[in-house]
Structure formats: C-alpha cells, structure tokens
C-alpha cells in the first residue's frame, strides 16, 4: 500500500468530527488497536483512540506486525501489552507503552492464560488437576485434584486477577455437573504470603456453556464483579452476594439498538464485555449480519450509571459513529481488517 494512499485512509478516519456529543467536561478517550493489511502476507497493529466526547477515532503509530497466528494482544492492561512470540515489535513504538511477549501453551492437557500481573498454566488430566501461577518470576502450585469443589464437574477458567496489592491471586471458574443440568461459579483466592488458598462454590442458573463458555476473552473481572453475557442479559456475577445482577438499562439499550436490522440467521447473538476503563464499560457484538457476503460489528460504551455514551458500527468496509442519544454523527470508509473476528482490540483496564 502506498504512503499517499495510506495517509489518505488514516486522514479519513481521523477526520470524523462533530460538535461535542454530550455535555460532560470529562474527556473520555478509549485506547484501541486496529489492524491493517500491509501486503498479501503482513498485517500491522496500529494504536488509536476513540474520543467519545468528539465522536471520532484518532489513529497514531504502528505498534507491531505479524503474518500468522492470532495477532491481537494476549492481555492488555493500562500501558502494558503482552503479545505472542510470532509478532514483530516495531522500532518506533509509543514510548508510553510497554510491549512484552509470551508463549502460548495449548495441548490436550495443558493451557496457558495471561492476566494482569501474572500468568497461569493449567494442567488437567486423569492424574492431575492443578494450576501453576507465575507472579513476579516465582511459581506457586495450586493442586485441586482432591478438592471437593472441583470433583465430578466440567470446570473452565473464566478469569483471574490480583487483589490487595498483589498479595492475593483470584481465579474464577464456571463449572457444570456431569450428571445434572446445573451450573456453578467456583471462586478461588490464593494467598501468596501464606502459600495457601480458600475456595467456595455457589449455584448460578444457565451459565453459558459449550462454545460460549465464559473465558478471559469474553468476560471482565473487577474485584467482586465478573461481567458476562448470560441468557441474553448483560450484567455481572456478584461474587460476594453469590448472584447474577442484570445491568437492565444496558441490556435494554443493546437489544433495542438496530436489533432487527442486523439479526443474524446463522448464529445466536453474543454481546461480549471487553473492557472497564476507569468509569467506562466497553462491550462488543461481532455477530451482526449484513448479508451472506458482508459481516458487521458493534461497539458499545456505557457509564457506570449504565447510560450510553457512544457506539461504533462497522458495516462491511464502512464505519459509523453514534452519540449518547444513539444518533449517527458521522460515517466514512473503514479500510481495516478483522483479527480473530474483531475489528478492534481494547485494554481490559
């Protein structure tokens, strides 16, 4: 792609301007990555931001390139991105960002996970049921084989985070009884100082299962809240109160916004929580259906009070931006590609 053509494309995106979209003096700029096809093989991740006040997208520098595999970050929190080994980090990366690389392990019995501040390697087989936590270059083994909370269940790691300034590592699992139509949440808090853990489990009806089982890529863990999409409802599991709490205003807004126009006849709709950046919640829906040859994607942003503050619609090769009142304020060409089904990547926090 020529420099002039590339510059023109970037100019189109960065020129999406309107008058201030909502009366709020707080500047809300959500960091993001978009993905560009440089040639027949090489793809590039470009750093940008969604200026919600001005209803525009600004694109900045290229961060890294990749040719194969999943090019999105393994985890992105704050100014730190952990990337796969297959990417090539560019020389002139924004100095405010720290880019690291990690190895993915995915076999029949082992699976690696990346979280804010720590990594986790799960090994589940007939002989083992354990997780190896790596925090500050020190390993901690969590052996769960004889723990009653995990017996006779199909268990999946939903998410994890550090608590109390890194003294506690929290893991949250979804679990399904092998002989019953019941589902549970299992909460494990590992004390790094005492080298011991506490675990509890509680029932939550109709947790997502199968291909939609809760995973770190489609949930957000924020201390005692696990944000998920469950039974066509957006909300969070309160890990203290042991119940699912629907964010009813968000659910209503999501399901009333262009629902019929983009109803997908092939797959069930799925609205995924992807980030909680300060007081802003970010959700995406990659299941939009334009026609048999054209796909779409919606990005939703909401305040802590569940009020809509902006939306992005990708329809084929066009981008549309909406204000807090769901009014379209701009549109332009969007000459970028999807990676792992998504047009954008956002930090989780």
SSE sequence, one letter per element: HEEEEEEEEEEEEEEEEEEEHEEEEEEE
Strand order of the largest sheet: 20-21-22-23-24-25
Largest sheet descriptor: 6 strands, antiparallel
Residue fraction in strands:
over 45%
Helix content: under 10%
Radius of gyration: 21 Å
- How many beta strands in the DSSP annotation? 26
Organism: Paenibacillus borealis
Protein name: Lipoprotein
What would your notes on this structure say?
The chain is mainly β and 349 residues long. Helices cover 6% and strands 51% of the residues. It has a domain of 142 residues. The two termini are 33 Å apart.
Can you tag this structure with a few keywords?
349 residues; mainly beta; 6-stranded antiparallel β-sheet; 5-stranded antiparallel β-sheet
Please summarize what this structure is.
It comes from Paenibacillus borealis. This is Lipoprotein. The chain is mostly beta strands and 349 residues long.
SSE layout:
Blueprint: H1 3-14, E1 29-37, E2 43-51, E3 56-66, E4 75-77, E5 80-84, E6 88-89, E7 98-102, E8 110-115, E9 118-124, E10 129-135, E11 138-143, E12 153-163, E13 168-177, E14 183-191, E15 196-203, E16 220-222, E17 225-230, E18 233-238, E19 243-246, H2 248-256, E20 271-277, E21 280-291, E22 294-303, E23 308-315, E24 318-322, E25 328-333, E26 344-345
Parallel strand pairs: 5-7
Antiparallel strand pairs: 1-2, 1-26, 2-3, 3-6, 4-5, 8-9, 9-10, 10-11, 12-13, 13-14, 14-15, 16-17, 17-18, 18-19, 20-21, 21-22, 22-23, 23-24, 24-25
């Amino acid at each position: 792609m020529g420099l002039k053509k590339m510059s023109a494309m970037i100019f189109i995106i960065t020129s999406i301007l309107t008058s201030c979209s909502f009366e709020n003096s707080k500047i809300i700029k959500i960091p993001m990555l978009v993905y560009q096809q440089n040639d027949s093989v090489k793809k590039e991740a470009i750093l940008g931001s969604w200026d919600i006040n001005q209803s525009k997208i600004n694109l900045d520098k290229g961060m890294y390139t990749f040719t194969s595999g999943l090019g999105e970050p393994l985890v992105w929190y704050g100014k730190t991105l952990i990337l796969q080994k297959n990417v090539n980090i560019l020389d002139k990366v924004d100095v405010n960002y720290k880019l690291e690389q990690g190895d993915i392990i995915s076999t029949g019995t082992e699976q690696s996970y990346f979280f804010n501040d720590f990594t986790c390697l799960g090994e589940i087989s007939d002989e083992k049921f354990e997780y190896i936590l790596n925090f500050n270059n020190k390993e901690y083994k969590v052996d769960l084989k004889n723990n009653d909370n995990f017996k006779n269940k199909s268990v999946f790691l939903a998410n994890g985070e550090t608590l109390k300034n890194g003294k506690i590592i929290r893991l949250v699992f979804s679990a399904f009884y092998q002989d019953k139509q019941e589902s549970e949440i299992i909460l494990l808090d590992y004390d790094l100082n005492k080298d011991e853990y506490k675990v509890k489990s509680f029932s939550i009806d109709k947790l997502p299962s199968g291909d939609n089982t809760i995973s770190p890529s489609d949930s957000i863990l924020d201390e005692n809240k696990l944000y998920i999409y469950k039974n066509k409802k957006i909300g969070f599991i309160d890990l203290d109160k042991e119940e699912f709490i629907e964010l009813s205003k968000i659910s209503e807004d999501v399901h009333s916004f262009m629902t019929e126009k983009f109803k997908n006849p092939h797959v069930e709709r799925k609205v995924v929580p992807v980030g909680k950046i300060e007081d802003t919640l970010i959700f995406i829906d990659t299941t939009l259906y334009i026609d048999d040859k054209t796909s779409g994607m919606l990005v939703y942003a909401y305040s802590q009070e569940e009020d809509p503050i902006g939306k992005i619609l990708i329809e084929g090769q066009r981008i549309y931006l909406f204000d807090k009142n769901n009014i379209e304020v701009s549109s332009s060409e969007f000459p970028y590609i999807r990676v792992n089904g998504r047009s954008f990547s956002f930090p989780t926090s």
